[in-house]
Design goal:
The structure is a single chain. The protein is built from 25 helices and 19 strands. By secondary structure, it is an alpha/beta fold. The protein is rod-shaped and about 165 Å long. Mean pLDDT is 82; it is low at 285-292 and 539-555. Helix 16 (400-412) crosses helix 18 (449-455) and helix 19 crosses helix 21. The protein has a 5-stranded antiparallel sheet with strand order 2-1-5-4-3, with helices on both faces. A hairpin with a 5-residue loop joins strand 4 (110-121) and strand 5 (127-136).
Length: 608
Amino acid sequence: MSELAQDYSESHELSDALEKFRREAARLQTLIDTVPSFLWASFPDGSKEFLNRRWYEYTGLTLEQGKGWGWKVVVHPDDLDRLIREWLALLNDPKPGELETRIRRYDGEYRWFLIRVLPEFDAEGNVVRWLGSDTDIEDRKRAETKLLEDEREVRRITDAIPQTIVVLDPSGDPLYANQAVLEYTGLSMQEVLSSEFRARMFHPEDVEKVREERQAAYARGLPFEIEQRTRRKDGQYRWFLIRLNPFRDEQGRLVRWYATGTDIDDRKRAEDRTRNENVALREDIVHSSMFEEIVGSSESLRRVLVQVSKVAPTDSTVLVLGETGTGKELIARAIHNRSKRSNRAFIRVNCAAIPQSLIASELFGHEKGSFTGATQRRLGRFESADGGTIFLDEVSDLPPETQVALLRVLQEREFERVGGSQTVSVDVRVIAATNRDLTTAVADGKFRQDLFYRLNVVPIRLPALRERISDISLLVGYLIDRYAHKAGKRIRNIDKKTMELFHAYDWPGNIRELQNVVERAVILSEGETFHVDEAWLTRLTPKSAAPRIPLVANLVEHEREILEAALRESEGVVGGPTGAAVKLGIPRQTLESKIRKLGINRHRFKAS
């Protein structure tokens, strides 16, 4: 009897436990059926074992229609193949995952859902079932779609803007570049968005130079701008002003940088050109002691001026020939001033006064680091003269390698800066001058024959002062007025004997020598009558004497005497307002070059 009671008691407890389990299962089923998300379970092969009531209510399918693989009928036809592939991929490599698809509602409308799946494993690691949930994300997808549409619209707008635009993340990495960037650089969007995009787009020197400045600006989060050279698709670099502006969200967090680029290469070139023109202007001021007007009425001078009037309106290259001091630069300026380039720069280069090692840099410029002392990029005289005229005085002194570069400029209107590989194109008229016989220099192999032919398109030979004696009276009167005004003196008369000496003298230094003599006489004069010390002129052989000293030897010796006289008056001082260079009306560098060339010891003229 006791055993029966015990069996009955155990059976009753089991029944109570089963009933309790059924009630808990029912409550769990109710919970699963009433949650807003769709919950489901699948067999290991991926077919559906269970779908909650919310899923059936939403799709309108029956229990039988939804089980197994029947659920596929409610997936959007455009999504089905992709969803099946992604689902099978999870089955083959069991791990938690997420899928997105559109599911048809009972009324036929499709909405986007996010499907989260989780594999359940047994003790041996085998999948026993898949658990999943479907969450409606239609609103989010619509917002994303609108955002994408807005972004595409913004991109269409920015692609229509000719200015280069790049969108960057808060740390400065690129996210998007407009069509202007791609067309200018020749890069693909993938290349622009790579981590090396700055090295691809910008000059290496500029990237390194602004690196710290750029990083500091990113950290501050304030608008800033930088100047960098941007590489064009043909390999040329041009200067750009890049302005970067931050964009923040509603909470004030930095989410984007917008960078716009503006081509400022012409402005940079103009700045460099202005800087070089200012250098040239300062040199011109130093040279202003050379009289500004061409004075004279002799037949030989009139023939020269007729040539000037004919060649000036053209762009032809001119070679001005004549002895030292005949006014070759004045003729070059006259040609420029009467040409269509008169409103642009006139750049003068004395090829003899510049060391041969630096002449190429002076003419064509150099890149930073191209040689010792090249601490920054510098434009040469040809770039400064772009659109105008360059006057190459003493062109016969150019070294052979520079002659080759000059020939290329004359033939092709282009060159490279020293240490650079970028081709620079210029529109420059060339006027060259020399006091030497270039045909002899060509025969001796010291001057290129092809360059001579390029320069000698229109030769103009200036007569020596001894060939235009009738102009001396006009020149003397002009120079006396000039220097008397400068010195604050009043000179009314010219000593007759002085004028006779002037007409009889050979003037190996030509007009420049006459200028120096007149200036000295004006400075030393004490009355209103102009006269010179006869010894100033009789130390050299007059033109009536014989045998005549060779012109070159005569000129060198006369130049030495003039330089020594000026050094003696200035007590050995070369530069400064009271120095010999000012007295002679030449640049200090030119005087120092001549002192070295003639071996003059200037220190012996210093006051004790």
